[in-house]
Amino acid sequence: MQETVRFPAEWEPQSAILIAWPNADTDWAERLAEVEETYIALVAAITRFQRVVICVADDDVETYAEMRLRSNRIDMERVRFVTVPYDDTWLRDSGPIALRAGDGFRLLDFRFTGWGGKYGASDDDRLVERLTAQGVFATQERQVIDFALEGGAIETDGDGTLLTTWQCLHERHPDASREELTAKLAGWLQQERVLWLDHGALEGDDTDAHIDTLARFAPGNGIVFQACDDEADSHYADLKAMADEIAALRTKDGKPYRLFPLPWAQPVIDIAEDGSRRLAASYANFLIVNGAVLMPAYGDPADDAAAAVLAAAFPGREIVQVPCRPLIWQNGSLHCITMQLPEGLA
């Protein structure tokens, strides 16, 4: 019999969440103390529900991270450290994309190019290879694919439908047609359909419009997406066009999706010596764990409203707010720094 291969949805049972601890050799160096507090809050939230695997650059980073976590009364029985080199901590894009393959897993190891060559990524591009060599993942085969693709650029419903954005994939592969990219993604990721969004991009996002900052699947044919109701905001027209695109999408059965628009946070401006810039405070960058949804909170009045939307989209799961304002300084948020490992993989 032919082996069944499937790309599971994020809300399916998980073994652990994979992250990498920030340190002075990463881009977090300038604001390390602030971002460490977010990582501590994140690990505290994850370990309430499941295990976390933490990549550390060396023994000193591990010792320090363990000390910080223990001092915050983290359940260390649910924490595993793995020493491995990494350029930065955005593991959604450099970590493994795991497909279920029979009784095991197929780990897809795409090329990671630092989001189209914007940043150095030589160690990040070898992360899956090195973690595999250390035996971090159980019962799996690693498939190396010479094609630039980041995990934050794709979203699956676990039932054969993939959601992505044209801007990102076209930026990475400008000579490929939509038909060619559709065929490649569907083949590697075992998808029946690929749905494309042509609109939607956030200021302060340097990923070229990753889908996980814009729109996410939810169980029962739902789509949670970042909306903008402020007509005076520079994002209004594009996010309205994206909302219209999403409303026009249909399930495999030809029915409209159940839609869950997320509220719009007030602009977050980073003021530096070389000028000011707007940061991408998206509520769509949430992380699903066993029994809960961890959502990025920005200290904004819309935080609680976003939590209510997620509670409606993911009934029966606890909604846990994690302070993520320090993360968006480096152009990402909660989902971007994590990668879920499906049940049985770790």
Please specify the SSE layout and strand pairing.
Elements: E1 5-6, E2 14-20, H1 32-47, E3 51-56, H2 59-71, E4 79-83, H3 91-94, E5 97-101, E6 104-111, H4 114-117, H5 127-133, E7 140-148, E8 154-156, E9 161-165, H6 166-172, H7 178-189, E10 193-197, E11 215-218, E12 222-226, H8 236-248, E13 258-262, E14 268-272, E15 275-279, E16 287-289, E17 292-297, H9 302-313, E18 318-323, H10 325-328, E19 339-342
CATH class descriptor name: Alpha Beta
Uncertain runs are: none
**Can you tell me the number of structural domains?**
1
**Biggest sheet layout:** 4 strands, mixed
Give the topology string: H per helix, E per strand: EEHEHEHEEHHEEEHHEEEHEEEEEHEHE
What is the straight-line distance between the termini?
26 Å
Instruction: Identify the CATH homologous superfamily.
Output: L-arginine/glycine Amidinotransferase, Chain A
Describe the structure in brief.
The protein is an alpha/beta fold and 346 residues long. The protein has helices at 32-47, 59-71, 91-94, 114-117, 127-133, 166-172, 178-189, 236-248, 302-313, 325-328, and strands spanning 5-6, 14-20, 51-56, 79-83, 97-101, 104-111, 140-148, 154-156, 161-165, 193-197, 215-218, 222-226, 258-262, 268-272, 275-279, 287-289, 292-297, 318-323, 339-342.
